[in-house]
Amino acid sequence: MNISQRLTALIAVALLSLLSVMLLGVSKLNDQAARLKYISEHSMQSALLANRIANDLNQNRIVLFVHILSSKDQEKAEIVKFVSANRDLLTKNINAYSQLVSEQEDGALYKQLQAAYHDYDQLYMNAIKLSDDRDFTAAFELANATGFSKFTAVIEPVKGLVKFNEDHAKKLIIEAESANSKSVVLFLMISGLGVVLVSFIGALIYRAIKKPMTESLAALSYIEKNLDFTGRIPVSGHDEISQLVKAVNHILETVQKSFVSIEQSIKKMSGSAIEVSANTRQLTKISAVSSESAAHMAATVEEVTVSINHVAERARDTKAHTQDSGRLASDGERVINTTVTEIDAIAGTVREASAEMSDLQLKSNQIRTVVNEIKEIADQTNLLALNAAIEAARAGELGRGFAVVADEVRKLAERTSRSTQEIANTVSAIQEGSDRAVARMRQVVLQVEEGVAHARDAGSAIANIRVASNLVVNYVVDISEALVEQSSASTAMAQQVEKIAHMSEQTNDAAVQSAISADQLQQLIETVQKTISGYRLY
Fold it and tell me: Are residues 285 and 184 in the same domain?
């Protein structure tokens, strides 16, 4: 039996007890009212009417002697009028009593009264007649001797009726008191039984609510205090509280799984962030080396340009310097070949840097995916916490403690969501920086390849100059002109190399910024890990 059924039984027993007491009370009150009505309308009326008859008989007897003793005709006439009226009233009362006869004893006394009164009334009227005839002695003797016995015969049943009605009224009162006592006992029994049943069912409900609520509050307090999501609330029974506890345990299990998933994702993201940070630092070093190489190449190109200009001037001055020009041409060829080799190395380094930046883009995309997963988990956790708060609100006072826990879970989910949003923004910034760096490195690669092509062309030209100078001195003028052209090409190449150096510096700055962003990402990951580590999930 669940709690609602027990409460229904408790209310039903209480209402049934109250209804029984009420119906019994109404019934007993109606019985008492009927007894009181009978006593008031019958017994009391019978006693009063019997007393009136007795009073009327006594009064008539007194009036009879007054009539006999009176010597005045006027007084006698007035007494006769009074006697006539009183006889009518007495007859009326005696006849009225017939309507109040209730038992055999009462009826026998009434019949005795009627017969005795009939004889007494005849004697009474004979005495009045003798008195009217002024035969006072005969009238007095009739009224006092024979009349007394007749009066006694009449008055005795009247007294019997009075006593009968008084005794009957007392009997009814005693019966009413006895019935009232029995009603009180019955009231107490029904009320006591109702109290016992209500107390018993109430105790069952109290035990059914008190124990699981105490265990639930203790378990939730432990989870709240120790942040231990491995704990569960013990479940016993199948009532509403047990269903609520099962729902809370399910929410705790869901939150635990969500936090475990978040923790695993954070660990993966931490490894990716460390790898990104290492790659970014390596890219920074490569960019620095590339910048230094570009600066060295620019200096070398400037030296080549100076040498070419010097050779051209010497070629114009004298043919004798042709051999020197050939030697210088050989030196220039060697330097240009070295420059070409260094430029090739720079181009390879830049290609590697571009590949590393592409890897950085891939890692950024992975981080973005992980961050989106964390955000989805946080949103699900927030939704679960909201559903738990709704279930607690439906539970009312029973779910208040759990509503607090659900609210804390929701707040944690909101903080996690904000943190993942910040991480996503940071990753987006890193990815944008990586995209710009990759684009710039591609430009650098193209420019370096173009510089290599120019350097190789310059090497070929100097080789031709060296061969031509060995073949014929007359070619010195042509070589001089070629050197002038080469000087222009070297100047242009120096400018391109300066651009490469500038781009290498920009690449280095972008790599440094990427390293800073990677460090910030790592710090955010450590913060989330520290928050997650505060919960016991295993």
Answer: no
Cα(first)–Cα(last) distance of the chain, in Å? 36
| Three-state secondary structure of 137-182 | HHHHHHHHHHHHHHHHHHHHHHHHHHHHHHHHHHHHHHHHHHHHHH
CB within 8 Å of 182: residues ≥ 6 apart: none
Do residues 246 and 205 share a domain?
no
Domain of residue 140, CATH code:
1.20.120.30
Ordered DSSP codes for 348-417: HHHHHHHHHHHHHHHHHHHHHHHHHHHHHHHHHHHHHHHHHHHHHHHHGGGGHHHHHHHHHHHHHHHHHH
**pLDDT interval class at 497 (50, 70, 90):** low
Name the amino acid, one letter, at 68. Answer: I
**Domain boundaries, position 294:** 240-527
Which segment, 33-42, 159-168, 334-343, is predicted with the most confidence on average? 159-168
Give this prediction's pTM: 0.35
Distance (Å, whole) CA 235 – CA 252: 14
Question: Mapping DSSP to helix (H, G, I), strand (E, B) and coil, where does residue 473 land?
Answer: coil
Cα 103 from Cα 535, distance rounded (Å):
94
